Amino acid sequence: MLDDFFFRAMLAGVGLALTTGPLGCFIIWRRMAYFGDTMAHSALLGIALSLLFSVNLMLSVFLVAAAISLLLLLLQRRGGLSADALLGILSHATLAIGLVIVAFMTWVRVDLMGFLFGDILAVSRADVGIIWGGGAVVLAAIALLWRPLLASTVSADIAEAEGLHPERAKLAFMLLMALVIAIAMKIVGILLITSLLVIPAAAARRLARTPERMAIVASLLGALAVVGGLYGSLHYDTPSGPSIAVAALLLFLISLVPGPRPAGGHAMEGEGRR
Question: What whole-number distance in Å separates Cα of residue 190 and Cα of residue 171?
Fold first, then answer.
């Protein structure tokens, strides 16, 4: 019989996957994968500030990721640089600043590998509760914001004309991303968060004909990747976080196998061509 820590890890991973599925779909539709990377990299700066000022780790990561989101919006409004350039600057700057701060704190022993690649097998019962509670908040917020987020993904101008406030929805989406990254950091690590957000959603795109079904399928594929990755990690004695990412990749590759397409074509066909 498997130990209790393994079931805690599975519960935590599945809870996270159910949350990242719908968010990942919007990342795919809006072509924001690089934004996800930027948010994930900013987590290291949050970790460094948490250690420096002795504040709650998850809260620090969330606040830094949220601040980076707001800064990105402000810089985009000023113009002058493309979104890709701004994301590149913020991504590498936050990662580098975090590493420099950690290097200066010689009195603190920091497990960088644990933060970079996660340690899902070390989650506690409290962590599981935070993941499921935070995930429920994120999913409830997505349900409330679904219409404005979907409309602004198709056309920001139309969403604005319908009074759906696309800019407000975009900001809310970024804050939800910040919250998920703060929750996910301990499980899959900074470098692998984006994989759990993007890969299941990319696989689900070929298997669903409506946005709603794509979000559900993405969550289920993410949960399957967690279970498969954990059992693979147990069997082959490999790192758990990377194993989950590899399992997600295998599911994506399977989704590419030619087969009958869902009636109605891909979900959100033509996204990004607004």
Answer: 22
**Interatomic CA distance for residues 56 and 163, integer angstroms:** 38
What is residue 260's DSSP assignment? P
Top-level class of domain 4-254: mainly alpha
Domain boundaries along the sequence of the chain? 4-254
Phi, then psi, of 122 in degrees rounded to 5: -100, 5
Dihedral of CA atoms 221, 266, 210, 218 in degrees, nearest 10, equals: 10
Span between the terminal Cα atoms of the chain, in Å: 53
Cα separation, 99 vs 204, in Å, equals 35
What is d(CA 43, CA 241) in angstroms, rounded to the nearest whole number? 16
Q: From CA 48, how far away is CA 55, in angstroms rounded?
A: 10
Please give the torsion angle defined by the CA atoms of residues 26, 38, 31 and 222, in that order, rounded to the nearest 10 degrees: -50
Is 151 within 8 Å of 158 (Cβ atoms)?
A: yes
Tokens of residue 22, six digits = 């719908």
Query: Could you list the pLDDT tens digit for every one of the 274 residues in the chain?
Result: 456 889 999 999 999 999 999 999 999 998 888 888 898 889 999 999 999 999 999 999 999 999 999 998 888 888 778 888 899 999 999 999 999 998 898 888 878 788 888 888 888 999 999 999 999 999 999 999 999 999 888 888 888 888 888 888 888 999 999 999 998 887 888 878 889 999 999 999 989 989 999 999 999 999 999 999 999 999 999 999 899 999 999 999 999 998 766 655 566 655 544 4
What one-letter code names the amino acid at 175? L
* DSSP line for 206-232: TT-SSHHHHHHHHHHHHHHHHHHHHHH
